[in-house]
# Entry
Amino acid sequence: APKNMTWTLTISRTLQTASQHVFRSMKLLVDLYATDDQIKRCLVFCKDTIESKVCRSIFLSLWEDQRRRAAGASSQQGQSAPTQTQTQIHTDIIFSTATEGGSEGAKETMQFDEQQEKLSKFAASDRAVLFNVKLISIGVDLPSVDTVMIVNPSFASHDVTQKIGRALRKN
# Structure
């Protein structure tokens, strides 16, 4: 399929329009959380607020689907012990003070206090995904991050290095 192909997805009664790479990225992230208990907090870099909202919605739909399937499999096997997919994952979106909203060009704003509250909740959560738009990059230290995902990769090596560096810093 062409890279720019658009799919319309119906997952857990949620209708979203998403490009192929966005869906695949969120599916990969759900699979990682479902199978690896070492992944606690993931920082997802998105290009704009629209993409961050789409990514979050797809992630939550896929995670709920994964949880339902795991719960069904556990009950068929008579298991009652919690599995990775039975745990809750805190998700949120964070962006800079004034961020372009995507193709419409509308600006969205997020105040500093709201940004700090979201960062605190992310750091305090047992498992969390934070969808970031142009806020957490150069010079921001988030020791609670253990995984980074770049939905729309930049080909500038310094950008990629800075983004990956969010998860490489020591606690």
